[in-house]
């Protein structure tokens, strides 16, 4: 192969790599911008709201079992988004532990075996995708999903009593 042919091949390979990088960057930029919506003059970040359907998810729990939100239709589910390294999150787990509601702890980090054993009544999911799909920006965050799959409460660690009240009102309506 002549030097001229080799330089042409390298030039085309370089251009192909540039197009792939440009396409990838554009795709990432579009995904980022889609998380925002224009509302009049200001821009608001997209997120979940109460009385909307909870995004469905599935993931493996601490025992390797497949967990799907859809499997809990007919029951209330409390999703607690937290991290083990967060002391406020640990306090929240202690506050919700005695509740009689299915609790799923979702984290982008892995929880230690000791914490999983301490809260053996909880289901632990490690999934950055679920955290992203629920638009979680800070932890701890609680999301209460009713028996129909609708979000009935979104709050943080300072709103445990409000979440308990909402849970009690759901039980009162169902009972």
Major sheet characteristics:
5 strands, mixed
CATH architecture tag of the largest domain: 3-Layer(aba) Sandwich
Oligomer: single chain
CATH class of the largest domain: Alpha Beta
Keywords:
175 residues, alpha/beta, Glutaredoxin, 2 domains, 5-stranded mixed beta sheet, two-stranded antiparallel sheet, 5 helices, 9 strands, 22% strand, elongated
Description:
The protein has helices at residues 3-33, 87-96, 113-118, 128-133, 160-174, and strands spanning 36-39, 42-45, 58-60, 66-68, 77-81, 102-107, 123-126, 141-145, 151-155. It has 175 residues and is of the alpha/beta class. The strands form 3 sheets. It has a 5-stranded mixed beta sheet. β6, α3 (113-118) and β7 form a beta-alpha-beta unit. The radius of gyration is 22 Å and the shape is elongated. The N and C termini lie far apart (82 Å).
In short:
With 175 residues, the protein is of the alpha/beta class. It is built from 5 helices and 9 strands; from the N terminus they run αβββββαβαβαββα.
Topology:
Elements: H1 3-33, E1 36-39, E2 42-45, E3 58-60, E4 66-68, E5 77-81, H2 87-96, E6 102-107, H3 113-118, E7 123-126, H4 128-133, E8 141-145, E9 151-155, H5 160-174
Parallel strand pairs: 5-6, 6-7
Antiparallel strand pairs: 1-2, 3-4, 5-8, 8-9
